[in-house]
Amino acid sequence: MSTYIARRRSQDKEVVWATRWDRFLVNSDPNIHWYSIINSLIILLFLSGMVAVIMLRTLYNDIAVYNDDESKVGRAAMRIARHINFPSIDGA
């Protein structure tokens, strides 16, 4: 069994608790990372487009089945209903 001992560096002791995140949050470099922003937007648009295409294809197929000839839908429903055991009305 091994143990792990964490030791703090001496320079970390000088960091005040209230300002410990300032070195990460304060932006001393005014250059905006345009590549990262554009890359994120492209990925967002691509994934949103994929979701939209999937939803539109699903809705298109559902509407096509709904608008299809009633007799085809009725025949398919009767084929399914033949295999369902409905309880009898008189309870026997």
Folded structure, characterized:
By secondary structure, this protein is mainly alpha-helical. It has helices at residues 22-25, 34-67, 70-82. The longest helix is centred in the middle third of the chain and has 34 residues, at 34-67. The protein has a domain at 31-84. The protein contains 3 helices and no strands. It is 55% helix and 0% strand.
How many H/I helical runs? 3
**Helicity level, as a percent range?**
55-70%
Flag low-confidence runs.
none
How large, in whole angstroms, is the Cα Rg? 32 Å
Task: Characterize the main sheet.
Answer: none
Q: How does the overall form come out from the CA principal axes?
A: elongated
Task: Give a quick precis of the structure.
The protein is mainly α and 92 residues long. It is built from 3 helices and no strands.
Give the helix/strand layout.
Blueprint: H1 22-25, H2 34-67, H3 70-82
Brief descriptors of the model:
mainly alpha; 92 residues; 0% strand
